[in-house]
What we know:
Layout: E1 5-10, H1 15-26, E2 31-38, H2 42-52, E3 56-59, H3 65-71, E4 78-81, H4 83-89, E5 97-100, H5 108-116, E6 120-123, H6 126-142, E7 147-149, H7 152-161, E8 169-176, H8 186-189, H9 194-197, H10 207-215, H11 217-230, E9 237-241, E10 247-253, E11 258-262, H12 268-276, H13 308-318, H14 322-338, H15 344-357, H16 366-388
Parallel strand pairs: 1-2, 1-5, 2-3, 3-4, 5-6, 6-7, 8-9
Antiparallel strand pairs: 8-10, 10-11
Helix pairs in contact: 2-3, 4-5, 5-6, 6-11, 6-14, 11-13, 14-15, 14-16, 15-16
The protein binds nicotinamide-adenine-dinucleotide (NAD) and magnesium ion (MG).
Residues 151-153, 222 line the site of magnesium ion (MG).
Amino acid sequence: MKSKRGLAILGSTGSIGTQALEVLETYPDYFNLEVLTANGNAGLLIEQAKKFKPNCVVIVDEKGYQPVKEALWNEDIKVYCGADALSQVVESSEVDIVLTALVGYAGLKPTISAIKAKKTIALANKETLVVAGELITRLALENEVAVYPVDSEHSAIFQCLTGESGNPIEKIYLTASGGPFRGWTMDQLQNVTPAQALKHPNWSMGAKITIDSATLMNKGLEVIEAKWLFDLTAGQIDVIVHPQSIVHSLVQFRDGSMKAQMGLPDMKLPIQYALTYPERFPTDFPRFNFMDYPSLTFEKPDRETFINLNSAYEAMEKKGTAACALNAANEVTVQAFLEEKIGFTDIAEINRRVMHDTQFVASPVYEDFVAVDSEARRLARELLLQGTIR
Ligand code: NAD
Ligand code: MG
């Protein structure tokens, strides 16, 4: 085995973060855990810090600082607070890999910082590539930094591409479960509650991505994520609904051959692959049994009802800051839906309007993303207040 890899987990208290820690527990000789971070969940961060003994922890929300500091006073663990600390801790010379397991736009700044510090990125935070894919891929290239996907569909594509260097991709198919409302009509969707939308058929994930899966925004974000990870055009990326979530995605090559990556849905596998690449470590995860799935089915996504998918394609083709505005609107509308301030179908409608109405910068620099993100959030909040409230 190689010498230990220093790991920073941004968002260690979330769904991806906690599963990453399970992977680490299985391979204690392979990783040195350097950094753990959380937004507000001080209790779990303390528990994780005591168990895994990282070099430092960051609690973003100031309210958590004193409790974390007091709980860890006896440990040899540095405690920092605030969003800026995320960008600083990833630069530590002890860190080799940064797992971006935090949710939303908040991932952008620390990811840029980590790339500039030449850290390998295991990217779960798809919003970073959605908002600023061009900037991130350029920085990664300039700094000779690898960005390994954690998202299961992108990990599938990445695995299918292993051994295919020099063979161009003709197209890819990203599979989608279709979420809990697959086959529902616009009328049926009007009165959907957060509790219904939070019940994903195949995956257990954080609240934001679960709602994104129900609105198909998650697939829209993934289409943009795939564009940047694999250098594809919109015409090369297709989405196919596959309710069983066994085929995690497919690549089609120019001779017409298609490769798929399959397995039971379990995020620990793509998390582990991103952290141990190019090696595959043994696992005791349950294995797929064909007899449990006598038929795997595929169907077209309903883009008329779930318009978020079209909005994402539109943003991707428009380039510039269009996807940044769409993402910002979506973060606001998903939160508002969870707080029962707007209805389920308002999410996609407001997202689309904000994407169209926010200023557009064709060749953005970092500061333009900051400005567009903030303007789009403001516009989205205005629309929430203008009569769409239930
Ligand atoms: P989650 O809500 O379960 O966890 C989010 C983590 O980020 C928590 O540790 C939280 O404390 C932290 N966080 C939240 N807001 C923050 C902020 N403003 N600043 C700093 N930290 C903050 O989310 P998740 O489901 O684990 O998803 C994390 C990322 O991984 C998302 O980008 C999501 O799209 C992506 N992803 C998740 C899954 C999954 O199975 N959960 C699958 C594929 C991709
Ligand atoms: Mg995914």
